[in-house]
Write a structure and sequence with these properties.
Blueprint lengths: L1 E7 L5 E7 L4 H7 L18 E5 L2 E2 L10 H5 L2 E2 L5 E2 L3 E4 L13
Length: 104
């Protein structure tokens, strides 16, 4: 299945890409030339954090350890392990993320 994703950068520039249901959001963004910060690529560090504005994602049984409970409540996701389940709108990573945030 193919989904559409609108990725809004911090400069308010939109990139519209197509994502396959079997690829992670980060894989799709990278494949389409959208630069995003990344490090561990397994959901542990939180470097790739993005805000989910609209749509549904699934972690396929993986735990987004790089997110704390407040970030989850605020609809942040880790695109390195997330796969889409609908069309999406994403907002780029905020400029800062607390390194001391309480983990879930």
């Amino acid at each position: 299945m193919l989904y559409q994703c609108t990725y809004r950068s911090l400069a308010q520039q939109d990139s519209n890409i197509s994502l396959h249901a079997d690829e992670t959001i980060l894989e799709a963004l990278t494949k389409h030339g959208v630069y995003t910060k990344k490090a561990c690529i397994n959901g542990a560090c939180g470097i790739c954090l993005m805000k989910l504005i609209t749509g549904d994602i699934d972690y396929h049984g993986r735990t987004p350890r790089g997110l704390n409970s407040q970030e989850i409540a605020d609809d942040y996701i880790l695109p390195c392990i997330a796969k889409c389940r609908s069309d999406l709108t994403l907002l780029a990573r905020p400029t800062t993320k607390s390194k001391n945030s309480a983990k879930k």
